[in-house]
Give the backbone structure.
Amino acid sequence: MFVEKLFADASDGEIRSALDDFLKSVPGLKHTFEVFIGRRNEFPTGHPATFVDIYPKGWGIPTYEKFGGLLIRIWRVGTPSRLIYGLWVGTERAEQIPARRASKYVRSRLGSALPTFEVENSFQYVEWRDALIEWAPGSSVRAVSRQLDCFASFKRAAGESTDDVERDLTGLLQFLDNSLSKLNTPKDFAIRVRDASSGLGRDEEDTLPGLQEGASTPSSYSLEVNWALADEPIWGNLKGLNEPYQRAIAALRAGKHVILLGPPGSGKTELAEFICSTLEQAFRSVTATSEWGAFETIGGYLPSPVEGNASTIVLDFNPGLVVQALENREWLILDELNRADLDKCFGELFTLLGGGQKSVRLPFKRRSQDETYRQVVLSHVRETEHDDTILIPSSWRIIGTMNTTDKASLYQLSYAFMRRFAFINVSVPTTDDYNSILISALGVVDIFPNDKAAASGLASILATLFASTEAGTLRAAGIEFGPALALDVIRYLASRSATLTDSISLVEEALELLVFPQMEGMRQKYPEITTALNSALSRPLSGDADRSLQMWTGHYE
């Protein structure tokens, strides 16, 4: 029995031979299954781990191991060692949220068959923290344990009874073998898993509770948000955004849509995506443009071929990005939303943004499968089968972003639009957080690697330029730039330092190329800007740099 070989620390050859015998003994398999054996050293779990992957040919390692591998993983892990086995999904494992999303996506695609199998065989879907794995004292386990979120369903062996484990694995193999037909081709499935794990939309074949094959169409649904997830954000490299995060979560939970307002590079878009990811909400992110109208947001008629008769062209309703997001149950992130004339773009949708159980009948009809045309209705409830009703989850939200520096020069938001949103200020991080961001960024690039004094001097200059709020600095003059711009400067310094070795000239050049354009039109603040730059650089700007600054600010002597 191959399970006995696992517990006995047998060689890969012995385990593989026993696995081959086991696979031959499983009756009724329609697909060819292959085997991969992997081992991990003691770091970080405090105990060596061995795993065995059994996957249908073409659906697993190595072709789609990162995204879309669908396999059975048998994992011996922990201290003392435990055996975990179940249906495992290949996805990005650097963070928990993408893995958890991918697993839930696969569960939805398998419909009611998987819960039925779980009840009959005592499998379950839980997060890694509930898996009851025991680790060596003092070990750092997160890098491995979060991979348990890749299990769409799993079971922990009660002991070392090989008969029970191999009976379970026989049933799991037969279940996977019979389920592959629901998942299209391996390549298509891999793309769907990648999109699901990234927070992109679900396709039209996805199933939701009450929407499984054979189930009746619901008259309404809410897709409730698990707001408890917001209490445990995993910040990673994001710093200084906790306060706007907490305010945005509170507003969203209260039923409001949200606009994140702040200077360029302050992390507004990253925060919007982080909120969606933390709440495990699929989302669609788009950047508004001045060309937008109702067609881009709501939709309109476009020529469309008749199915089965490509030579016949008819007009059909083509949904815009907002309607698409509603149909796909995706939250919508509108980046730089004031670049569009939103009063014109949203039109009939204003009614929906105000909250409440409202319906909107769009001035369009959409062709159905029976070739009849039905009125397109956006509603929280399905009022009649004669309409083409797009149900709106009560939890659906829009998160917009807007630069404060562009607020006066672009389209103004009407009071009617603003009333439907909560405005959250995303300010530049505190000096301490900003310095922490700069130090982290400088730590992963090579700028003057053989001259520590010059490298240290650069860090001091950048901190003064971007982070300091003391008198005589840019921030003290009310000119703030988010960390994204500072990180752009650091990347430029790393790229240019090989050919330009004078640190002051290097920073000055980076400012001229990347920062001065952000000061366009600041003519009245030119004296304060030059004072701050001269102080940070410990010398006056060069003639060329000063002329460039005058050009951008509009200050000509």
